[in-house]
Amino acid sequence: MFFLQVDHDIYLKLVEKKEAALLFQLTDYSRDHLRRWLGWVDQTLSIQDTKEFIKIATRKYAERTDLVTLIWYRGKPAGSVSLYDIKWYNYQASIGYWLGKEYEGNGIMTRACRALLNYSFQTLGFHRIELKAAVGNEKSRSVAERLGFQAEGLLRQAEWLQGQFVDLVIYGLLREEWQG
Predict the structure, then answer these.
(1) In contact, 156 and 164? CB cutoff 8 Å
(2) What is the pLDDT of residues 108-124, one digit of tens each?
(3) What percent of the chain is predicted at pLDDT more than 70?
(4) Between the CA of residue 18 and those of 21, 44, 48, what are the distances in Å?
(5) Is pLDDT at 180 greater than 90 in this prediction?
(6) How many CB atoms lie within 10 A of CB 93?
(7) How far apart are CA 14 and CA 71, in angstroms?
(8) Side-chain-side CA neighbours of residue 40 (13 Å)
(9) What is the pLDDT at residue 1?
(10) 3-state helix/strand/coil string of the chain
(11) What's the pLDDT at 179?
(12) pLDDT at 29
């Protein structure tokens, strides 16, 4: 079971089936806030959808290809930060994150990502972490840039969001650049 204490307010824990109702409730409450940048939100319409997601995430964790965590802030689920598309043979992974609307503006995501990046570089031995964010998603991009990610290019019309294709900025962070 994965658990990572970030600071006195925040910890990361592997998402579990018993938390499906809490995760769905957070998603549903923040639906309008999240759907602009996260295509999966419109396909998450019930607790059963969330249970299925957790089942897949648990399988991928066992296969060592993904690590999906809930961000717990002062005892409540606040969002998620995950490593996915882990390529052990290349010492790299991608990171993705989202935060419930009521939790923004408290530095939660930056602190959670910083802890997971430390774990990725120091414990897992990764050399590179990638991140993709829609060009217009300024909040997500500012988190990446605060953490030291470098914009490496533009993926044209790479994601279908809200009935249209959007461009994504691809960011990279190398172990030797990390200032964790």
Answers:
(1) no
(2) 999 999 999 999 999 99
(3) 99
(4) 8, 17, 12
(5) no
(6) 22
(7) 9
(8) 9
(9) 85
(10) CCEEECCCCEEEEECCHHHHHHHHHHHHHCHHHHCCCCHHHHHCCCHHHHHHHHHHHHHHHHCCCCEEEEEEECCEEEEEEEEEEEEHHHCEEEEEEEECHHHCCCCHHHHHHHHHHHHHHHHCCCCEEEEEEECCCHHHHHHHHHCCCEEEEEEEEEEEECCEEEEEEEEEEEHHHCCC
(11) 81
(12) 93
C-alpha distances (whole Å) from 106 to each of 78, 112, 113, 139, 164 are 11, 11, 13, 13, 31
Spell out the domain ranges in the chain.
3-126
What is the pLDDT of the chain when averaged over all its residues?
96
Specify the length of the chain in residues.
180
How many angstroms separate the CA atoms of 119 and 62, rounded?
A: 18
> What would the two tokens of residue 81 be?
């930060």
Superfamily in which the 3-126 domain is placed by CATH: Gcn5-related N-acetyltransferase (GNAT) (3.40.630.30)
Query: Which of 22, 1, 4 lies closest to 12 in space, CA to CA?
Result: 4
Q: What angle do CA 33, 35, 37 make, to 5 degrees?
A: 95
Mean pLDDT of 78-85: 97
